[in-house]
Amino acid sequence: MIIGDILNALERLAPLSQQEPYDNSGLQVGLTRTETAGVLFCLDVTESVVDEASEEGFNLIVSHHPLIFNPIKSVTDRTSIGRCIIKAISNGIAIYSAHTCLDNDMHGVNAMIASKIGLRGLRILRPMSGSLMKLVTFVPKACSEALLQALFDAGCGNIGDYDSCSFTHDGIGTFRAKEGANPYVGHIGELHREPETRIEAVFSASSKAAVLEALLKNHPYETPAYDIYPIDSATSGTGSGMIGTLDTPVRASDFMRQIKSVFGIGSLGYSGDAGRMVSRVALCGGAGAFLIPDALRAGADIFLTGEIKYHEFGDNDDRILLVEMGHYESEQFTQHLLLDAMQRQFPSVKMKITERGTNLKKYI
Predict the structure, then answer these.
(1) Theoretical Cys-Cys bridge with 282: which of 58, 295, 312, 344, CB 3.0 to 4.6 Å?
(2) Average of pLDDT values for 86-105?
(3) Is 201 helix (H, G, I), strand (E, B) or coil?
(4) What is the value of pTM for the model shown?
């Protein structure tokens, strides 16, 4: 099992096409064709984490936050980033970061937070534009079910909490095969009319290559007719933040105490009426204050995120209850999400979450 196999699985879990333009997700440092000795998961890459990997024989570190976020002009021992890079390369350790690829995934960081606090009916708070595409194709009626299943297996048909979603309609397709063609039905030089089924299904833009491969491999025609085009939809499974509903309304103060307990947080920052009842909850792991307007438009009673600026609390306290959890605290379970997903696929590979504290913000 080489490191590249693990990286491919990580990119299937959280495709690089889902990252924000400002981000630098993906492979940060290292070789991909080296045999995997072990995978160490963390939220942030620190010198201590690289030392841990080296001491315990892990040659792949998978972090949430990128080690190299902003462009660097030199790699020296004068900066912590430089020292991490030098140590990693010297010890044959690769470093990969998931960051906004996972932040923007329907089953990523925000879904993990939502599951911890018991939200239901989840949807993306701000869907990513252009993240959904639609395939339209035409296939002989007798072959439609087999092709449709192959498309589902490749990633078509996922809408919100539903899969295998499609629309089909029967009609008549016409074509004339020219010299040199090898028609599945009909004859060279003759106009042919074939009972066909029109298939429509949506898919994530990150699945386009897999969907095209499934279409061309499973369609009986040597030259299938098909269209692929982007669509805008609020049901997109890719984007920022998440919103859902609690099973029963709860007093905000009690809900915040629950959050402190579940996430092991010493104190929460909040604004608004802690005595109000809340049921509709919007959230975003990390620095998510940019989504406050989206939470308001979605009718959220409360918005949870890792970081909120001081004046942002005052600007909105009469319309929505805002809660600041702490950046690390809100995203800490991302390590478990990544570990669980990779262990299911590679049970024989040594894996663990770092035992070195990586919260960059300290408290007294």
Answers:
(1) 295
(2) 97
(3) strand
(4) 0.80
Q: Is 65 annotated as a binding residue?
A: yes
Q: Cα–Cα distance between 314 and 269 in angstroms, integer?
A: 12
Beta strand segments in the chain, E: 26-29, 39-42, 60-63, 94-97, 120-127, 132-140, 167-176, 191-204, 226-231, 239-251, 269-271, 277-284, 302-305, 321-324, 351-353
Cα 133 off chain centre by: 17
- The enclosing H or E element of 211 equals helix 208-218
Q: What is the pLDDT of residues 125-163, one digit of tens each?
A: 998 876 789 999 999 999 999 999 999 999 899 876 688
Residue 227 labeled ligand binder: no
Closest CA to 154 of 217, 204, 106, 210: 210
336 is in an annotated binding site: no
* Residue 247: other Cβ atoms inside 10 A: 9
Domains and CATH numbers, the chain: 3-99+332-353 (3.40.1390.30), 109-127+238-325 (3.40.1390.30), 132-231 (3.30.70.120)
pLDDT digits (tens, 9 = 90+) for 317-329: 678 999 999 999 9
Give the SS3 label for residue 252: helix
Q: What is the largest CA-CA distance in the chain?
A: 84
- Indicate the SS3 state at residue 255: helix
- Indicate the residue type of 297: R
- Tell me: is residue 103 an annotated ligand-binding position: yes
Q: pLDDT tens for residues 190-232?
A: 999 999 999 999 998 878 989 999 999 999 999 999 999 988 7
107 annotated as ligand-binding:
no
Cα-to-chain-centroid distance, residue 248? 28
- Tell me how far apart the alpha carbons of residues 61 and 40 are, in angstroms, rounded to a whole number: 5
